[in-house]
Amino acid sequence: MIKLEKVEKIYQRGSERVRALKGIDLEIERGEFLSIVGPSGSGKTTLLHILGCLDTPTSGIVRLDGIDIETMPEKELVKIRREKIGYIFQQFYLIPGLTVYENVSLPLTFSRKERNRSEIENLIEMVGLKDRINHKPNQLSGGEMQRTAIARALVNNPEFILADEPTGNLDSENAEMIFELLKSLHNKGISIILITHNPDLAQRTERIIKLKDGIIESDQMV
Amino acid sequence: MIKLEKVEKIYQRGSERVRALKGIDLEIERGEFLSIVGPSGSGKTTLLHILGCLDTPTSGIVRLDGIDIETMPEKELVKIRREKIGYIFQQFYLIPGLTVYENVSLPLTFSRKERNRSEIENLIEMVGLKDRINHKPNQLSGGEMQRTAIARALVNNPEFILADEPTGNLDSENAEMIFELLKSLHNKGISIILITHNPDLAQRTERIIKLKDGIIESDQMV
Ligand SMILES: Nc1ncnc2c1ncn2[C@@H]1O[C@H](COP(=O)(O)OP(=O)(O)OP(=O)(O)O)[C@@H](O)[C@H]1O
Ligand SMILES: Nc1ncnc2c1ncn2[C@@H]1O[C@H](COP(=O)(O)OP(=O)(O)OP(=O)(O)O)[C@@H](O)[C@H]1O
Ligand SMILES: [Mg+2]
Ligand SMILES: [Mg+2]
User: What is the dihedral of CA A165, A169, A172, A177, to 10 degrees?
Assistant: First the structure.
């Protein structure tokens, strides 16, 4: 369970202060499938990074299963990030010199988990990239890069998937395939936090958190 | 006027041959507002790069106002790319060390055109980034980066705008603002070629070209 208490994120640039998050109170239970929506620049990616322990708030508390993450040893946080959470980044962040197969396999080298070759190929096939398995990122289309990032997020069998606009570069058919994949993972008990600009997809999750100018404007069950 | 005759684009990777475009015949008049749609990997970005003279076909002919671009001196092609065409890339390609203002102004250093400070600020305001004008790309949200790339494509007052999924990272309100901006430019006589995964936006252009597996599946007036 993740709990945010009065979380603020402020970026200081010289004399300018950007308040990306202004006092967020939020509780997310295990097994939820929720979406975060809101205008460009409203703080969604910032919020997701804090929920995923990739970033710390400027003020306020983040609790994992009741424990303030500030009191957790770094080793513990690293273990959580590597083994329990799968991230799909808005900018993908694929490694240029590695193939689709190698990019997807990369998290395995950091976690203690093992997957054999055919399991990884199966994952790559699930996102429709079987014919691109040996391509490098500069030999892929935008949507193919996005799908590589999606497969990579799943290779560790994570308990949480944090997905930042995973269908932004996909046509409706591929977007549907990815959403169905997320739903099936949710049915197996995985918690999913999805940032999306697609209102139809948001409506098909269980709870919608609307951000606006760094605050939660509404938080509703669908 | 752009004319493609039997255009093919083949990527050879070792023994593997990827036929990204398989025989494209296409004629686009000045002043058109057309969209290119199709599944991820169907060849849209490849087609746009060839239409914009950023890439050459493996076979087939590209004519600009009747002239085969293979017979054009490189200087002429460079002039066209820099002065006549504004590109919005699917991956943005902003320069990391430069601010929004500097990134937007960059094409001016390559073309002979001049714009004064307030004209550039006006353009940045038109895409809603007035408050981010001094931010660098790593201090911007995904949609803010996308809007910076959009403003940059317009700074040279181009005759053609080639836009590769310019609203993929934008909420519906910002997407609408960008589409309205493109429409107003079209009303001033600028030709617009828009790749989009958003069927509603495609329906609001004048002509839709549907790609599938590297061929034109259909080419219809809206
Ligand atoms: N350098 C390359 N080498 C090999 N294959 C490539 C290369 N560049 C692109 N491709 C392949 O060509 C096909 C067409 O790519 P393109 O970028 O045009 O697709 P797209 O329609 O824009 O897709 P998307 O909607 O995902 O952006 C893709 O399947 C891609 O894997
Ligand atoms: N390092 C930084 N320095 C200053 N401001 C920043 C920095 N990083 C992000 N911001 C600002 O914080 C705000 C929130 O950014 P965030 O990436 O969370 O937005 P978002 O809701 O994900 O937007 P989008 O839908 O465009 O992806 C933005 O307005 C952005 O300009
Ligand atoms: Mg974002
Ligand atoms: Mg593309």
Answer: -70
